[in-house]
Design goal:
- Two copies of one chain form a homodimer.
- Chain A is mostly helical.
- Helices cover 52% and strands 12% of the residues of chain A.
- Chain A has one domain (31-118): Winged helix-like DNA-binding domain superfamily/Winged helix DNA-binding domain (Arc Repressor Mutant, subunit A, Orthogonal Bundle), CATH 1.10.10.
- In chain A, a hairpin with a 5-residue loop joins β2 (79-84) and β3 (90-95).
- In chain A, 36% of the residues are buried.
- Chain A binds a DNA duplex through residues 33-35, 50-52, 55, 62-68, 83, 86-91.
- Chains A, B: This is HxlR family transcriptional regulator.
- Chains A, B: Residues 22-120 form the HTH hxlR-type domain.
- Chains A, B: One of its GO terms (molecular function) is DNA binding.
Chain lengths: 120, 120
DNA sequence: CGGAATCCATGACGATACTG
DNA sequence: CAGTATCGTCATGGATTCCG
């Protein structure tokens, strides 16, 4: 079972590096891959967004990668998909509450990343 | 230039998803790959550790991957390497201060990961 | 002991074309 | 408009062997 150590701020205890299940690795895998962070950032900044709108904002992404990344993020519970039965078809994506909880943490990570990059 | 938005807790602003440089992507790339988190966790929990000791603790890692991961982490400034001119050779690895600053953030990420996994 | 060198398998990712 | 299908490429990681 997973024990997270709050006493010493260790990311994980008794489960990393040697245990089967690591909640940190699990969390990182959810946002891994080349396009998930840009997608989450776009949805966070602009709110509910349609497929082709996302494709325009995220420069360089292809149909294939946007579609597969969105599908994974939805399966992981980080974004929600709403389809409107209109013609032409309209599909809107937005962040879930779980994902919104994640954003402040990613913000801290970004700050840390900016600092170590400077001092490097 | 990189602007991190503190007002709304967005991981990044004006630089993600469409800008060249993203401090969040940069930070994530530093700890990316299959073995970096286990290595950092091992060093955090047990402090200064030798090469073969790390190899024993991190189950499943090979010489190649441990060596290359350690080298990358050192180049990134997350760990420090000290070599003692003895026979047999002794090399000790430990976390840098920069990396220790990172640990509480990873701890939060682990907590978040544990929660979303439960509710999923 | 602490690696480096080499080769190989796999999966992520990209490009293009096509569809309901 | 919002995707899927197919195929090619390349980076990541694994296995093994060898070296100072």
């Amino acid at each position: 079972m997973t024990l997270i150590d709050d006493q010493n701020n260790s990311p994980c205890k008794d489960n990393c590096p040697c245990m089967d299940y690591c909640p940190l690795g699990s969390a990182l895998s959810l946002i891994g891959g080349k396009w998930k962070i840009p997608i989450l950032c776009a949805l966070f900044q602009d709110g509910t967004t349609r497929f082709n709108e996302l494709k325009r904002k995220i420069r360089g992404i292809t149909n294939t990668m946007l579609a597969s990344s969105l599908k994974e993020l939805e399966e992981e519970g980080l974004i929600s998909r709403e389809q409107f039965m209109e013609m032409p078809l309209r599909v809107e994506y937005s962040l879930t509450d779980d994902c919104r909880d994640l954003m402040p943490i990613l913000n801290q990570l970004a700050h840390w990343g900016a600092q170590v990059h400077i001092t490097k």
